[in-house]
Amino acid sequence: MSAEQTFLDTNVLVYLFDHDEPAKRERAKQLLEQAKPGALALSVQVLGEFYVAVTRKLKRPLDTSDALQAIDWLSLLRVVALDTELVKAAIRTSRSSQLSYWDALIVVSAEAGGCGRLLTEDLNDGQQIGSVRVENPFVQLSPAPARSPGASSHTSAASQARA
Description:
This protein has seven helices and six strands. It is of the alpha/beta class. The N and C termini lie far apart (30 Å).
């Protein structure tokens, strides 16, 4: 597991296209621009959630052809495929870490992708889950109330896409 390898949750990618959140949009752009080649990963789950969020959940949604073009671009990153072993690992992680199944699937996908870091605003900043450390790249942009260890934010478009 490499701390240099970073897994991107859906919300980070959605902010790239959210014109109503300019500070978070700029931060998301910086994260992608400053990453070393090959250092970023995501999963097929993230791509699916991204599509739903940017076409249905944003105040100014993308049309489907623009969303598909964005998915083609995001697919240039390392993409972790899902299989039955990851599904079962997510169920175990959900139970042991008190996470929703969907958040646990993100965590185990990060592990499977060899990522020691998970960028998301849906889990607690600094939380360690297995070999993955959670980092909220937006924490200084919008202070949020502390959440209990497994609680997820349901305010972001990406979180709503999981619903």
